[in-house]
Amino acid sequence: MKTNPKIAIILGTGLGQLASEITDCLEIPYNEIPNFPVSTVQGHAGKLIFGKLGGKDIMAMDGRFHYYEGYTMQEVTFPVRVMHQLGIETLFVSNASGGMNPKFKVGDIMIITDHINFFPEHPLHGVNLPGYARFPDMHEAYDHKLIALADSIAAEKNIPVQHGVYIGVQGPTFETPHEYLMYHILGADAVGMSTVPEVIVARHCDIKVFGVSIITDLGGFDIPVQVSHEEVQKAANSAEPHMTEIMREMIKRS
User: Fold this and answer.
1) Inter-axis angle of helices 229-253 and 144-156, to 10 degrees?
2) Which runs of E-coded beta strand occur in 54-161?
3) Cis peptide before 177, with omega less than 30 degrees from 0?
4) Strand residue runs (E) in 63-161
5) Which terms does the record give in the GO molecular function aspect (predicted)?
6) Alpha-carbon distances, residue 131 vs 136, 137, 204 (angstroms)
7) Distance between CA 129 and CA 152 in Å, rounded?
8) How many CB atoms lie within 10 A of CB 205?
């Protein structure tokens, strides 16, 4: 199988069904790839996929790695370094997240316009790699042209979307009501335990990024709502077809 992907996708919790849309697949379990961590979270299949989506060669991570699993930031983001070495130019990232914006509801698709890094360790901490910027610019972490393309496709297909700022936190606990409230006061619309480290490293590699969150639970309001990982997966699964439709068309037009 000969493939030359320029586009990569990272699929988050409950979002692995998009992988079934990929044709002409070559699947490689993470445990067969040298130096790759292994995903330990329910809902993450743990395999690298090469194939076609939207008529384009793509590379997809069906399941990601998280800081809360005990991996270092360098291990969490190692796959993005591999993508860069393989010639990836555009990265699509997805996640399940909790919403703090009162305009949001469970099942909403939120296009990420910016992020807040609230992790205790930075993925670029340490000696800088030769040939990379020591202080990479992050004024456009999420590509404005890709966001505009997503908005256009969503409008064409009558798929409602939200826009917002994603805050990445360590986890693995879900947030307390006042943590939700604090994150919203800081300027975030949704919170999750991934994505930000991968995006930082992608931009360090000069890879363009498009990010999307599925709002799987809500917090920070007057009445606290209990949440479980199973409920998060269920909400993500229900919203995934619309997210897949937008991403597939974006890849087709990229």
Assistant:
1) 100
2) 56-62, 90-99, 109-117
3) no
4) 90-99, 109-117
5) purine-nucleoside phosphorylase activity
6) 12, 15, 10
7) 37
8) 19
The candidate with the shortest Cα–Cα distance to 68, out of 232, 194, 236, is 194
3-state helix, strand, coil in the chain (%, to 5): 30, 25, 40
CA gyration radius, the chain: 17
Judge whether 87 and 5 are in contact, CB under 8 Å: yes
254 residues of the chain, pLDDT tens digit each = 567 899 999 987 656 677 778 888 888 888 888 888 876 655 445 888 999 988 889 999 988 888 998 899 999 999 999 999 999 999 999 998 999 999 998 889 999 999 999 999 999 999 998 888 899 999 999 999 999 999 999 999 999 999 999 999 998 998 888 999 999 999 999 999 999 999 999 999 999 999 999 898 887 665 555 655 566 566 666 777 888 889 889 998 87
CB 17 within 8 A of CB 248: no
Q: Which amino acid is at 59?
A: M
Contacts of 111 (CB under 8 A, 6+ apart): 147, 150, 151, 161, 162, 163, 164, 210, 211, 212
Residue with tokens 């988050």: 12
Distance in angstroms (rounded) separating the CA atoms of residues 80 and 88: 9
Cβ atoms within 10 Å, residue 46: 19
Residue 62's nearest CA partner among 17, 121, 103, 104 is 17
Cα→Cα distances 101→40, 49, 183, 215, 218, Å: 30, 34, 10, 10, 8
Q: Which of 70, 9, 64, 71 is nearest to 41 (CA)?
A: 64
